[in-house]
């Protein structure tokens, strides 16, 4: 424990050691008076020979956070007189980190706020720098997403993840699961698009041998596998109307019956659903059951599109590049990043990843420059059919595809996947 000698607030400082996370005692003027042992272990000693301010220590700023454009939990707690919670990115000996901050005002007998206790919990599900975490980002939209996940994960609330295609809904679902108390049990995923009634039921509830033609053995349903863990229903908006009642029953009662089975079984799972559709509009059009909507929409989380988090494009690009090619030999120029920032990513992070996979194939050097990115983007425009139809582009595209096929030893399925087109389109383009 560390205490600022001048202030002599030893009693309060002793109290900090009761917290099982890093904690500091701060004045309403942002001055840190004391820190506990966890703080010392995580962030090191604070130099208290001169006044130490939280905005300087945690952010290396010369002014309070709100003056630097970030929400300040201390000012919020000062205004509300109540506990406040916010997600910040702090500088620590480990570099930048997402921190879940809780701040509690301490009042004197005249009910004036004299101090704040600030608790700092490291958020490991996200990363503000290139790293192994699935989720990287520093933009306000991303931080809001991380804050929502951090808040809801330890509860049992059903989560509805709403976002455009390729924004990271599955990654977010996995983050909720891994930050929950169910993390040691499985997270089971059911992709709901294109399922027939029989397939949906037998996938979800399992079936008994002989239940229908082709049911040659007993099959465990995903609901049973998810027991104790999380059930993730991707593209929930694609569940046909007639099947929604079966899903509702499962969610309401936690019970189900395998296809062809007589006895009712029970499963204890946490539900996460995802969709790119406006489910409420579907309810209004009579395409989605209202009762089911209210069951799945307990805690909705908006997953931001890349358009909403343009400031993350550089970090995402460098992270994805490292993930695609683990040798670490590739780098990307700032001009190339600027070009990517101007692109309209309809397929969001997945599209960015595809473009970078192509760039690795097309680039003759380990430095991905503006020209390579430009070619990759033009190919995309061309396949969407909204670019100028120059023969050059056609030639470029053909060269690119041939190059791509060679690079994967003639495997056309792989080449098509890298190009982000179907194998059939690939054959059509190279014939
Ligand atoms: N915050 C993030 N940081 C780094 N990579 C991410 C992030 N979010 C998503 N990704 C990557 O983006 C790609 C798309 O993510 P994901 O499959 O979760 O999207 P989705 O929204 O579920 O897509 P769909 O709507 O098609 O099902 C994946 O390669 C994933 O690893």
TrEMBL record:
Gene3D superfamilies tied to this protein: 1.10.8.60, Homeodomain-like, P-loop containing nucleotide triphosphate hydrolases
InterPro entries, A to Z: AAA+_ATPase, AAA_lid_NorR, Homeodomain-like_sf, P-loop_NTPase, Sigma_54_int, Sigma_54_int_dom_ATP-bd_2
Keywords linked to the UniProt accession: ATP-binding, DNA-binding, Nucleotide-binding
Keyword ATP-binding among record annotations: yes
PROSITE patterns xref list: SIGMA54_INTERACT_2 (PS00676), SIGMA54_INTERACT_4 (PS50045)
Pfam families per UniProt: AAA_lid_14, Sigma54_activat
Domain Sigma-54 factor interaction: 135-361
Family annotation (SUPFAM superfamilies): Homeodomain-like (SSF46689), P-loop containing nucleoside triphosphate hydrolases (SSF52540)
Domain of life: Bacteria
Name of protein: Sigma-54-dependent Fis family transcriptional regulator
């Amino acid at each position: 424990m560390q205490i600022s000698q001048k202030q002599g607030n030893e009693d309060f400082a002793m109290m900090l050691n009761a917290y099982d996370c890093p904690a500091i005692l701060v004045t309403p003027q942002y001055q840190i008076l004391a820190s506990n042992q966890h703080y010392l272990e995580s962030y090191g000693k604070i130099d208290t020979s001169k006044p130490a301010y939280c905005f300087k220590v945690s952010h290396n700023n010369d002014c309070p956070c709100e003056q630097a454009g970030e929400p300040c939990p201390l000012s919020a707690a000062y205004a509300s007189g109540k506990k406040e919670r916010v997600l910040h990115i702090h500088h620590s000996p480990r570099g930048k980190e997402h921190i879940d901050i809780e701040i509690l005002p301490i009042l004197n007998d005249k009910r004036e706020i004299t101090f704040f206790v600030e608790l700092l919990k490291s958020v490991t599900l996200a990363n503000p720098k290139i790293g192994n975490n699935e989720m990287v980002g520093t933009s306000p939209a991303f931080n809001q997403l991380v804050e929502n996940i951090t808040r809801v994960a330890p509860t049992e609330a059903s989560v509805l993840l709403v976002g455009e295609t390729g924004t990271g809904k599955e990654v977010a679902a996995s983050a909720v699961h891994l930050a929950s108390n169910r993390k040691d049990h499985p997270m089971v995923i059911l992709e709901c698009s294109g399922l027939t009634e029989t397939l949906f039921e037998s996938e979800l509830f399992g079936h008994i041998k002989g239940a229908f033609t082709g049911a040659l053995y007993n099959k465990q349903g995903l609901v049973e596998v998810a027991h104790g863990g999380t059930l993730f229903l991707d593209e929930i908006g694609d569940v046909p109307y007639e099947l929604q009642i079966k899903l509702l029953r499962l969610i309401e009662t936690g019970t189900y019956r395998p296809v062809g089975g007589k006895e009712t079984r029970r499963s204890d799972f946490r539900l996460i659903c995802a969709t790119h559709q406006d489910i409420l509009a579907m309810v209004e059009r009579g395409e989605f059951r209202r009762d089911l909507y209210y069951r799945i929409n307990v805690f909705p989380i908006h997953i931001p599109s890349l358009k909403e988090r343009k400031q993350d494009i550089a970090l995402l690009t460098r992270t994805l590049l490292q993930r695609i090619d683990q040798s670490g030999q590739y780098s990307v120029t700032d001009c190339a990043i600027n070009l990517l920032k101007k692109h309209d990513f309809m397929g969001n992070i997945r599209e960015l990843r595809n473009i970078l996979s192509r760039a690795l194939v097309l680039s003759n050097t380990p430095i991905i420059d503006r020209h390579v990115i430009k070619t990759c983007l033009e190919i995309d425009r061309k396949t969407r059919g909204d670019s100028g139809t120059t023969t050059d582009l056609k030639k470029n595209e053909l060269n690119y595809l041939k190059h791509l096929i060679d690079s994967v030893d003639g495997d056309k399925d792989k080449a098509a996947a890298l190009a982000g087109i179907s194998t059939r389109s690939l054959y059509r383009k190279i014939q």
